[in-house]
Amino acid sequence: MRRLVIASIFGFLAFSLMMVSSIEAACAYTTTTGKVIDVTSVDKQGGYSVSTGGDWDYYFNVCELPVTSPSSKCSFSQTPQAYQYSSKWNDCYPIGNKGNPKVAPLSPTDETKGVKITHDAFTYQNARRELVINLKCDQNAATTTFTFDGETTGAVSTYTFTGSSKYACIGAGPGPNPDNPSDEPIMGQYGIGGLLLTLLLVGFILYFIIGALVLKFAMKKSGTEIIPQFAFWKDLPFLLIDGIMLPVDLIKGCMGKNKYQEMA
């Protein structure tokens, strides 16, 4: 039973680290040289709006920030990454699934050109609409604006937009821009993953501080007894070994069972 508990703890910690890692890398591309192009900071509060001069306008964001809906007509069972809206026709269509962007280099042979962000097709009324954002590297770009490149139709309709940003450049990374506070990245260089890790660390420290105070002053403990769950922490190295050996023993057991069946 103890092994199972320790294995569960290991599993939870591994899952938490994976979640933090996925959050940090949700809108980033790692180059062949190990550099990271993180375009999360291109997101804009409320999203970007692009007018085509025709009947339809577009509203979207690059990564994770929500987009302000242009109309009550833009209400769907799931929130899309972008909206195609016509005030003339008072009609709205969703474009792109939200939450899992695919980031790739604009040019497979030259990763310094920028990145392409693809949001998989959103299915609505038997039609599938995909969002593609081409983000060119421009070290001097103070802000980002987009143009509508057009729509390609087929089994999947693709809506493509192009813009330029310093965050699409290798080594730029998220960071504050003193000349344009509105362009400052969400939570600066800290990131959501950094926040989660900090909260976990603070919670761990508070666990010992509050626990020691309660045990010392409320329960009148002394010495090592004021350390919360002292016996557990003392046995932790052995528990870790037990937790590691659990899957090993399970594998050995399965292999032994298979050999027994073969002999039978």
Major β-sheet annotation: 5 strands, mixed
Instruction: List the secondary-structure elements in sequence, H or E.
Output: HEEEEEEEEEEEHH
CATH class division of the largest domain: Mainly Beta
Shape call: elongated
Annotation field: number of helices? 3
Task: Decide which structural class fits the backbone.
Answer: alpha+beta
What would you report as the Rg, rounded to the nearest angstrom?
26 Å
The CATH homologous superfamily of the largest domain is named Mannose-6-phosphate receptor binding domain
Task: Report the β-strand fraction as a percent range.
Answer: 25-35%
The third-level CATH topology of the largest domain is Cation-dependent Mannose-6-phosphate Receptor, Chain A
Membrane topology: Single-pass type I membrane protein
Signal peptide: 1-25
Organism: Naegleria fowleri (Brain eating amoeba)
Pfam families: ATG27
